[in-house]
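User: I'm new to structure prediction. If I give you an amino acid sequence, what do you actually give back? Let's try with this one:
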Amino acid sequence: MFRRSGPTDCEITWNGAPIPAREGESLAAALLAAGIAQFRETAVSGSARGPLCLMGACFDCLVEVEGVANRQACLVMVTPGLSARTQQGARETGA
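Assistant: Good question. You get back a string of structure tokens that encode the predicted 3D arrangement of the chain. For your 95 residues, that looks like this:
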């Protein structure tokens, strides 16, 4: 699992719980450093999913950020007070 190499400088919220983070790191990195590896469940089987590639290619790290679903946690940069939650349901492609 990931470990931090230095101190945190802000706090974010994950599913209503406070998580220490560093401003400017990816949301995926912040969650992994906090010991959170499951970011969503697949819509069909309910299988747990978390970050795989950490570069925006796989879509396994989809989360809801500030009320907006289908955000890739590996591409969202942490800002103080950021609020995110587990992705619910299938990814929408935007018809």
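You can read the tokens as a compact description of the fold. Here is one thing that stands out. The helical segments are 27-33.
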